[in-house]
Automatic annotation (TrEMBL):
Transmembrane segments: none annotated. InterPro entries: Folate-sensitive_fs_Fra10Ac1, Histidine_acid_phosphatase. This is FRA10A associated CGG repeat 1. GO terms for molecular function: phosphatase activity. PANTHER family: ACID PHOSPHATASE-RELATED (PTHR11567), PROTEIN FRA10AC1 (PTHR11567:SF25). The gene is FRA10AC1.
C-alpha cells in the first residue's frame, strides 16, 4: 500500500503541473543586479555626506575631485586678487569734492557708496594741506566726525600738520581743482594760525 500511495501522489503532482512549468529553483540575485544596487546605495551615502558638509568644505572636495579625475594643480583654481578693490578704493575713484544734482543722475553702487561717505562729512570748514605752498599748490578736504568733535579745523589750526590753537583767523578761499578731467571751483572756509595763514597767502603778498 505504501508503494501505491507514493504512485498516486506522483500522479497527482503530475496532473497539477502546468504545461512547460519549470522546476522550482531557489532565487539567487544576478551579480550585475547586486552591483547596481550597491552602486545606488554608495551614491546615496556619498550624497548624504556631501550635503552634510559646509559650503567651503564642499568647494574643497569638488576641487580635489576635479584634480583627481582631470589632473591639474590647486594653484589653477586660485582667483587673482589683482583687480580687487576696497571700499576706500571705490570712494577715491568716485570722489566728488561737491556733489551736484547732475552727479546723481546716473548712480551705480560705487557712486552711491562714495555719496554715502560724502554725506557723513562736515562741510563748514576745510582741512588744508599746505606742504607745497611755495609751488602754489594746495589740497583741501572736508572734516570728518572725529575732527569735528576734537575741534580740528575750527578751534585748532585747519592745516593738516598743525594743531596751533592761538591767533586763529578765518579765510575764504576760491578753491580751483580738477575732478574727473573737469575744472571746477568751490568757495571754502578755513581757520588757520598766523604761520599757516602766511603759507596760504605766500603768493599774494
Amino acid at each position: 500500500m505504501g508503494g501505491g500511495g507514493g504512485a498516486n501522489e506522483w500522479n497527482e503532482d503530475a496532473l497539477l503541473k502546468k504545461p512547460f512549468q519549470k522546476e522550482k529553483q531557489s532565487k539567487v540575485a544576478h551579480r550585475q543586479v547586486a552591483t547596481d544596487e550597491w552602486d545606488r546605495e554608495e551614491a546615496r551615502n556619498q550624497r548624504f555626506h556631501f550635503l552634510a558638509l559646509d559650503a567651503y568644505a564642499r568647494h574643497k572636495k569638488m576641487v580635489n575631485d576635479y584634480i583627481l579625475y582631470y589632473g591639474g594643480k590647486k594653484e589653477d583654481f586660485k582667483r587673482s586678487g589683482e583687480n580687487d578693490k576696497t571700499d576706500l578704493d571705490i570712494i577715491r575713484e568716485n570722489h566728488r569734492f561737491l556733489w551736484r544734482e547732475e552727479d546723481e543722475a546716473d548712480m551705480n553702487w560705487e557712486k552711491r557708496l562714495s555719496k554715502k561717505y560724502y554725506d557723513k562729512l562736515f562741510k563748514e570748514y576745510c582741512i588744508a594741506d599746505l606742504t607745497k605752498y611755495k609751488e602754489n599748490k594746495f589740497g583741501f578736504r572736508w572734516r570728518h566726525e572725529k575732527e569735528v568733535v576734537s575741534g580740528k579745523g575750527q578751534f585748532s589750526c585747519g592745516s593738516k600738520h598743525c594743531d596751533e590753537k592761538e591767533g586763529l583767523k578765518s579765510w575764504e578761499v576760491n578753491f580751483g581743482y580738477v575732478e574727473h578731467g573737469e575744472k571746477k571751483n568751490a568757495l571754502v572756509k578755513l581757520r588757520l594760525c598766523p604761520e599757516c595763514s602766511y603759507k596760504l597767502n605766500f603768493h599774494h603778498r
